[in-house]
């Protein structure tokens, strides 16, 4: 469905005179294919370039090099920017509060993208139906974002994203700000919606344990580079790249006394292998291997 070819993104930091003082290679020659109906987990520690990749796919940022194809058609062009793809692609953010208007009710937040496609009355009727589907019912649909719990707010973010019936959704850390007990509810909701609406997900997270149940395949990103790609079972049972192994070790052991998972820290300056040969180690399981 979606093909990312040789995608590179370089951010340039400039001083007051416009001279480049620093460059950040946020994505380095990323090649990925996302199949229709699957959930591809994109994992890596903070700053590894996951959100940058997600934003470029959605046309919210430009790539420095490379191409993105949706159903064989290039979308990293000006046509993409015209939001012709509003029906095709959507995003769910970590904190829907910061991405919604605090003075509008849940109903009007969800109805907003629909109003571009249908009459106001139809949009509000449909928005109500979708809110009910994600578990926001009755008078609750008229509340303002701050009047909801974090989990409910994320349900509204999800309702807004699926309202226009997209094919593909980038979920950028959708459960990272939530309690572990609520995380499972939201993940189940996303999985139910995926089945009903035949959605394809790119599920971004720094926490491998979160994608264990939802992802069909996992891509591991380290300092802008995909270092390992395989089905979820392979990544968990026989990780090949040292970075993947470190991420797996960083999964905290469940402890009922711990309310929120501690954000893990991978030793940021350790030198993981980033140059090497992309090798198929098992069927459909690839990793960067030393030459
Ligand atoms: N607009 C920007 N201008 C300059 N640098 C940026 C910009 N956006 C991201 N970066 C840099 O690119 C790198 C990748 O950032 P990105 O947000 O993609 O990481 P991430 O994997 O999503 O991290 P996190 O898990 O913390 O969300 C970081 O070093 C970041 O500082
Ligand atoms: Mg991010």
UniProtKB/TrEMBL annotation:
Domain ABC transporter: 2-248
Keyword Metal-binding annotated: no
Main location: membrane
Lyase in keyword set: no
Topology of the protein relative to the lipid bilayer: Peripheral membrane protein
Entry's localization field: Cell membrane
One of the Pfam families matching this protein, by short name: oligo_HPY
Origin: domain of life: Bacteria
Example GO molecular function: ATP binding
Assigned keywords, A-Z: ATP-binding, Nucleotide-binding, Peptide transport, Protein transport, Transport
InterPro entries hit by this protein: AAA+_ATPase (IPR003593), ABC_transp_ATP-bind (IPR050319), ABC_transporter-like_ATP-bd (IPR003439), ABC_transporter-like_CS (IPR017871), Oligopep_ABC_C (IPR013563), P-loop_NTPase (IPR027417)
Family designation: Belongs to the ABC transporter superfamily.
Protein's UniProt name: ABC transporter ATP-binding protein
Organism: Facklamia lactis
């Amino acid at each position: 469905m979606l093909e990312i070819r040789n995608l590179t993104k370089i951010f340039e930091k400039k001083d007051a005179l416009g001279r480049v003082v620093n460059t950040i290679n946020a994505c380095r020659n990323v090649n990925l294919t996302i199949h229709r109906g699957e959930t591809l987990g994109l994992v890596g520690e903070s700053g590894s370039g996951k959100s940058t990749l997600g934003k470029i796919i959605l046309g919210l940022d430009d790539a420095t090099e490379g191409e993105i194809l949706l159903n064989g058609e290039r979308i990293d062009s000006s046509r993409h920017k015209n939001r012709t793809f509003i029906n095709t692609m959507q995003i769910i953010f970590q904190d829907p509060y910061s991405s919604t208007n605090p003075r509008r009710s849940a109903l009007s937040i969800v109805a907003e993208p629909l109003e571009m496609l249908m009459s106001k009355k139809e949009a509000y009727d449909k928005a109500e139906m979708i809110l009910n589907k994600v578990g926001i019912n009755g008078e609750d649909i008229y509340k303002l974002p701050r009047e909801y719990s974090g989990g409910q707010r994320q349900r509204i973010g999800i309702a807004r994203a699926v309202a226009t019936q997209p094919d593909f959704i980038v979920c950028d850390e959708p459960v990272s700000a939530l309690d572990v007990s609520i995380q499972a509810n939201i993940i189940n909701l996303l999985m139910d919606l995926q089945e009903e609406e035949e959605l394809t997900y790119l599920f971004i997270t720094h926490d491998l344990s979160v994608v264990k149940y939802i992802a069909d395949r996992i891509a591991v990103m380290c300092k802008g580079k995909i270092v390992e790609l395989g089905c979820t079972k392979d990544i968990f049972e026989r990780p090949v790249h040292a970075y993947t192994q470190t991420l797996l070790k960083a999964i905290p052991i469940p402890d009922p006394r711990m309310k929120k998972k501690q954000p893990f820290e991978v030793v940021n300056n350790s030198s993981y292998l980033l140059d090497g040969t992309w090798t198929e180690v098992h069927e459909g399981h690839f990793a960067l291997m030393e030459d």
